Amino acid sequence: MSKAAFGTNPEGTIPMCKTTSPVLRRPTAEDGPAVTALIAASEPLDPNSAYCNLLQCSDFADTCVLGEREGAVVGWISAYRPPSHPERIFVWQVAVAASARGEGLAGRMLDELVSLPAVQGATTLTTTITEANPASWALFGAFARRHGASLSKSQRFERAAHFAGAHDTEWQATIAPLPSVHT
């Protein structure tokens, strides 16, 4: 089932078709280069090494979500279960291609993430966000409201102490309780 939406080209003159909603799936190692390119094009995200993204697409694939449209990677969530806090799922990065923004893809990917078997038993979602990233605060706030959870904010990595002044302070967003999708 596909639905097409029509828009205009950047000049606003020629109608063009916007294709189907992205398909959400588990990444594979072969997705590593496309994920690296997506993250590089997604400011204000910090770029990772290509090797880091390759490991996320392979060794951490069970806790990551990839959005794909017509063979192109248009969405990405990397996440993992911290060994010292197995009750948590930590969302590392959320990236959406410019061509897929405004479609609710990031929210769909978060919902997919918490439904994955590897996330079963997690009661809390955590992530870190700088204050200068209102889009991420809005995304995680909407996720918390949609699932009837609360969102709390606390300083996690401070600019001077942890980044030697080279990066803004990262604030931890904690969302709990997560929806219970596995019984």
What's the SSE blueprint?
Layout: E1 5-8, E2 15-18, E3 23-25, H1 32-40, H2 50-58, E4 65-69, E5 72-80, E6 88-96, H3 105-115, E7 124-130, H4 134-146, E8 150-157, H5 159-163, E9 170-176
Helix pairs in contact: 1-2, 3-4
Summed up, the domain count is 1
- Helical content stands at 25-40%
Q: Could you report the average pLDDT, rounded to the nearest whole number? A: 87
Query: So what's the oligomer here?
Result: single chain
Low-pLDDT ranges:
1-17
- What's the main sheet like? 7 strands, mixed
Count of discrete alpha- or pi-helical segments spanning 4 or more residues: 5
Shape: globular
CATH topology, anyone?
Aminopeptidase
Strand runs, count: 9
Helix vs. strand class: alpha+beta
Which architecture does the CATH hierarchy give at level 2? 3-Layer(aba) Sandwich
CATH superfamily: Gcn5-related N-acetyltransferase (GNAT)
CATH C-level name: Alpha Beta
Cα-based radius of gyration, to the nearest Å: 17 Å
Describe this structure in words.
The chain has 183 residues and is an alpha+beta fold. The protein is built from five helices and nine strands; from the N terminus they run E-E-E-H-H-E-E-E-H-E-H-E-H-E. The chain has helices at residues 32-40, 50-58, 105-115, 134-146, 159-163; strands at 5-8, 15-18, 23-25, 65-69, 72-80, 88-96, 124-130, 150-157, 170-176. It has a single domain, classed as Gcn5-related N-acetyltransferase (GNAT) (Aminopeptidase, 3-Layer(aba) Sandwich), CATH 3.40.630.30. Helix content is 26%, strand content 31%. The strands form two sheets. Strands 3-4-5-6-7-9-8 form a seven-stranded mixed sheet.
